[in-house]
Design brief:
By secondary structure, this protein is of the alpha/beta class. The protein folds into two domains: about 5-140, 3-Layer(aba) Sandwich (Rossmann fold); about 150-265, Orthogonal Bundle (N-(1-d-carboxylethyl)-l-norvaline Dehydrogenase, domain 2), CATH 1.10.1040. Helices cover about 50% and strands about 10% of the residues. It has ten helices and five strands. It has helices at about 5-15, 40-45, 60-70, 85-90, 125-130, 145-175, 180-190, 195-220, 230-245, 255-265, and strands spanning about 50-55, 75-80, 100-105, 115-120, 135-140. The protein has a five-stranded mixed beta sheet with strand order 1-2-3-4-5, sandwiched between helices. Strand 4, helix 5 and strand 5 (about 135-140) form a beta-alpha-beta unit. Helix 3 runs parallel beside helix 4, helix 6 (about 145-175) packs across helix 9 and helix 8 crosses helix 9. The protein is globular.
């Protein structure tokens, strides 16, 4: 397992519960606590049949290159990073013969049964290897990069929706203290949207900056030449949220929703 952020932790834990032998590596050793850890990426993958990579998007190609150099010729790599399709196709060149599998997480990693999308020549083999981990697997086809494209398309809906929902919640502190507007959205959509809204808020506290970059990439992937992007204001909104979360006094991600929303208000919550 390469990369022991929240996604890597979830996969490592699930693999160990399923009785698999797991060796993990992360440049931040504290993240590997409680797991059998190697002191390098090469050490983690040297004897592996399967490698899962949950590294940051910018490290996607470097991770694949490290696996290609250190692992055996029969080793498969499942890359579940959020890298763009072009980067994943570049990464695949370091594991020829179809041994690279493009994977994307299409859910919150905290979901009861996270949805993972796979693509590549050996996606079916990868799906079998991931069986028993409490995942729902979707097949996107035999081409590396297709699963990454699916994630980009999903971003065109989910990330603007996140921005709009958090804006509604922040404005409602003063304009709708009883929360009727959000309740009405819930009724219109026939879904437990207040729970969704809370999940958006808490996850945005952690991931707003990364999601702004992902939305920019998604918008660029579908933009017509010379046309204005519908999504630029939403990406800017995510960037501004990330800046607010980095400001002094930002509450912890597990703080109550009211404290998170108060921090986003223009007066820092002093008006109520």
């Amino acid at each position: 397992m390469l990369g022991m952020g929240p996604v890597g932790q979830r996969f490592a834990d699930a693999l160990e519960r399923a009785g698999r032998r797991v060796v993990v590596y992360d440049p931040l050793p504290d993240r590997c606590a409680g797991h059998r850890a190697a002191d390098s990426a090469a050490g983690a993958v040297a004897a592996a049949d399967w490698v899962l990579s949950a590294v940051p998007a910018a490290a996607c190609v470097a991770a694949a290159q490290a696996v290609g150099r250190a692992a055996g010729r029969d080793t498969h790599l499942v890359d579940i990073s959020s890298a763009e399709p072009k980067a994943k196709r570049s990464a695949a060149r370091h594991l020829p013969d179809g041994r690279y599998v493009d994977a994307t997480l299409l859910d919150a990693i905290t979901a009861d049964i996270p949805l993972v999308c796979l693509s590549g020549p050996r996606q079916d083999t990868a799906a079998a290897a991931l069986a028993g981990l409490g995942l729902e697997i979707a097949s996107a086809g035999p081409e590396v990069g297709t699963a990454a494209q699916v994630k980009l398309l999903r971003s065109l809906v989910m990330k603007p929706l996140e921005v709009l929902t958090i804006e509604l919640m922040a404005q409602a502190r003063d304009l709708d203290p009883e929360g009727i507007a959000l309740w009405s959205v819930e009724r219109s959509l026939r879904t437990p949207y207040r729970t969704v809204a809370h999940d958006f808020l808490t996850s945005n506290r952690l991931h707003a900056g990364r999601r702004a970059a992902e939305l920019d990439a998604a918008a660029a992937a579908v933009a017509a030449p010379g046309s204005a992007s519908l999504y630029a204001p939403m990406a800017d909104g995510l960037t501004r949220l990330a800046e607010r979360w980095r400001a002094p006094g930002a509450p912890d991600p597990d703080a109550p929703a009211e404290r998170l929303l108060a921090h986003l208000s223009p007066d820092g919550g002093r008006g109520r």
